[in-house]
Amino acid sequence: MSLGTLFSTEQIRSLPPKALIKHFNLDVKLEKEDESYKKHFPLGKIPGFIGPKGFKLHEVIAISIYLINSADPESKLLGKNAKEYAEVLKWLSLSNFELLPHIAKVFKPLTGAAPYNKKQVDESSEFIEKVIGIFEDRLANYTYLVSERLTFADIFSAALIVRGFDNLFGSEWRKAHPNTTRWFKTVTQQKILHDVLGDYKFREKPVEYVAPKKEKKQTQQPKKEAAPAAAAAAAAPAASSDAPAPKPKHPLEALGKPTTPIDEWKRFYSNEETRESAIPWFWSKMYNPEEWSLWKVDYKYNDELTLTFMSNNLVGGFFNRLSASTKYIFGCMVVYGENNNNGITGFFMVRGQDYVPAFDVAPDWESYSFTKLDGSNEEDKKFVNNMLAWDEPVIVDGETKEIADGKVCK
C-alpha cells in the first residue's frame, strides 16, 4: 500500500523529504502544488504530506521524521538514544527556524527575488555569522553535528545551508569557516544527498547587489538676484549654456498612450482567474497589434544553468533591472526542466514594434534572444497563453518539459 503523497516544489525545504523518499525507496507519490493541495493545506506550507485515511502533515521536520520512522523504526538517523534524538531535534530546529530564513533575507534581495533593503541584509548577514559560529564550534571537535555518526541533523542542515553556499559563501568565506565547509563537503558526498544534489560546485565569489539604473535627478540652480536689464541681456547666452539639460524621456514615451492602459491589464491579470478571465480579456481588450508587439524571449546560455531556483533568481534579477521600462512592457518567463537540466523561456508584450528600446535599460539584456510572435497565429497564441497560465508543459526541441517555476514582470 502506498505510504502517501508528498506535495512539494523546488523550495529548499522540499529537498530533505525528497532525499529520504529516494534513499529509502519509499512508495510515496510526488505531486506539485495544486488545487487539492490548497484545499488540504490552507496555510500553503511547503512541503505537505497526505497519508492513508486522511492522515495529514505539514512542517518539514514532522514529515521527515515520519518518513524515517516509516522506512526504519530502528534507524540511527534519529540518534541511538533519547539524548541524541534531542540533539537531532535541536539542530533541525536551529537550521530550519534560525539559519535558513536569514540566509533567504540576504540572498533574495541580492539576486532580485525580493526588494533590496541594506539594513535588513546587513543585520541578517550578522545573524548568519552568529549561527554559523555555533556550527564552527561544534564541528571543531566532531565529524558530525550530533556524534561521530551521520544523523538526519547533518542531512537536513546541509540541505538547507545549500542556499548559503549557492549564493553567499564564496572562497574567502570558506577559508574563514573551515569546519563548516569540511562538514558540508563530507555530508553532501553521502549517497542520500549526492543522489539529489549531484557533484556540488562551489562559487568563487558571493552574489553582489546590482542596483537598477536610475535617471539622474537634475539639481535645481540657485536663484540669483535680479540684475539690471542690460547686464541680464549680456549674460543671457552664458546662462543658457549653463542651464541643466531637460530630463531625458524614455524613447517609448514618444508613442503616446495606448488605447487600453497597461496598468489596467496588470491589475486584471493579478486579480482574476487566468484561463477563465484574464487570457480572454488580454486578447479582446488589451492586445492591439498596432500598439503592441509580442516577443518570445529565451535565455541564450541554458547549458550553464544548474539548480532551478537559481535560474528563477536569474529571471528575477533581469526583471529588476528592467524597472525603467515597466510602463511599456509586460511579460512572463518560466524555468522549465529540472536541476542541472533546465532552461528559461517566456514572452513579453512591448509598446511599439521594436524590443530594443524597452530592454536595453538592463545591462544583461543581450543574454536573451528575442523572436517576434504573431498574435493571429494559433501556435504563437497558444505559447503566450501558456506563459500567462503556467499550467501546461513547454515544448523544447520537440521534447516536453515541465514548468518548474517562473516570474511575472509587471
Automatic annotation (TrEMBL):
Residues 227-244 have a biased composition (Low complexity). Residues 211-256 are annotated as: Disordered. The keyword Ribonucleoprotein does not apply. InterPro entries: EF-GSTs, EF1B_G_C, EF1B_G_C_sf, Glutathione-S-Trfase_C-like, Glutathione-S-Trfase_C_sf, Glutathione_S-Trfase, Glutathione_S-Trfase_N, GST_C. Keywords: Elongation factor, Protein biosynthesis. Pathway: Protein biosynthesis; polypeptide chain elongation. GO terms for cellular component: cytoplasm; nucleus. GO terms for molecular function: guanyl-nucleotide exchange factor activity; translation elongation factor activity. Residues 81-207 form the GST C-terminal domain. Pfam families: EF1G, GST_C, GST_N. Coiled coil: none annotated. Residues 248-410 form the EF-1-gamma C-terminal domain. It comes from the Eukaryota. This is DEHA2D15994p.
